[in-house]
Amino acid sequence: MKGDVRTDSLSSSICLYTSTNANGFIDYVPDLTYDGKEDDEQELQHENIKPYTRKWEKSTMDTVSELHLVSKRKTGSHRHCDAWHDVPAVFFSTGGYTGNIYHEFNDGIVPLYITLQHFNKRVVFVILDYHEWWFTKYGDILSILLDYPPIDFSGDNRTHCFPEAMAGLRIHDDLTVDPLLMEGTSELARIYWVLNSSDVTIGVHGAALIHFLFMKPGSVLIEVIPLGTEWASETYFGEPSTKLSLKYIGYKILPRESSLFNEYDENDPVLTDPSNVGKKGWEFTKKIYLDHQNVRLNLVRFQKRLLRAYDYSFAKKNRDFYLQSH
To answer: First and final CA of the chain: distance in angstroms?
Structure first.
């Protein structure tokens, strides 16, 4: 609801006051039209909602207070504001399964984070079925998400006015925050989601391989190691990935798999003795082996690493399944 939004706790209502040709509930109802009558507080649209996340469970929803969403034509006698807020409001019930710590997180805290994330703390939390102990318990979390104190909807009879109101919280799945469904999900979050849901990641040695930090423990990292990069590959990716409980598999290419094979004689130390060439200094090594080297894998040879990764992942899944079922 956007516009002139005002609370009426005595009737458990949120009222959106509209001009004659105004749009009604944004995202909730179709366009509203005015029938020309001059009655004060004329009701144009009325819908009811129970602002709690488990809408598929009737028995649970029966314990949640109902909120009336009402659109009225603006007249000279519409409700005055006792408290004006220049930020949006989010209405939510702490009824339902509140009191069960699993559901407090699954039905409340996680959806609260999902819903409020894009407000950047500039939002007021208006609560139905208010429990003071809930705010005492989760005050530290709420302070991270909100800059304003919550309002007890039923316990505060004042008329609060907002420029916008949302009734209910968004939920993705049980204890789940899906970055692809979040407003402003960044490219980094998309990469995280893909890597964290993968069993095996393959990459050529280079700065971008640092994304292994997003891989889940127990998955496999295969690093293609070009000529002249053995020490750096092991130091920067091999050892750290192992410390993070990843299965690290290095694939050291042969000279024929390097583009340098076409630039140097096959007996040149650049191809036959990269470690000795590297003693000439970092800039020399970088210029030859990092800036001007591409790889073309021998897939028959590389297949052995793929099979190792497959066997490891398959065995791990079977082992995990066995442990979970016993």
So the answer is: 51
